[in-house]
Amino acid sequence: MNRALRLHPECRRAAVSRIDVELRLSQPNQLSLRYVLSGTIDAIAWPAPAPAARADGLWRHSCFEVFVQPVADAGYSEYNFSPSTEWAAYTFDGYRSGMRVLDVPTPMIIVQRDAMQFTLDAEITLPKAFAAPLRLALSAVIEERDGPLSYWALNHPAGKPDFHHADGFTLAL
Questions:
Q1: What is the structure's pLDDT at 29?
Q2: Which of 4, 57, 123, 173 might form a disulfide with 108, Cβ 3.0–4.6 angstroms?
Q3: Fold of domain 2-172
């Protein structure tokens, strides 16, 4: 399944022309994602490569994200993938409430880039309690070298960028 992310209407973009996401549920709890960013890759502030370790605050810089919610539940999980290969996973009881670290295996993250395209592949193991059907929100934060952040998602709620908002969970699996 392929989906294009949309730029938040209050953001400008100079470096990024588009972000596409390909995803598939390969087993009941294995989710594979491929984020493909096209544009002027050298104009983006990329973090230095790092070991594939858990880290907080990844969303403050270039970062790719997926939010996963069982259809029958108010709770959801958030996964962050940095181009450095650092990652984070959190679980929430409801909208931005009850946040805690989600205990999951280290995701596989592979990055590739050339002058016009950046690709981040991630494979995650979802909690067994997260059985289909699922609702997903896909998003990205991109930091350009001159400082501005741009916010990308399948769907943006009204107002400031908010990837946790229920209106962003538009993809059914």
A1: 85
A2: 123
A3: Immunoglobulin-like (2.60.40)
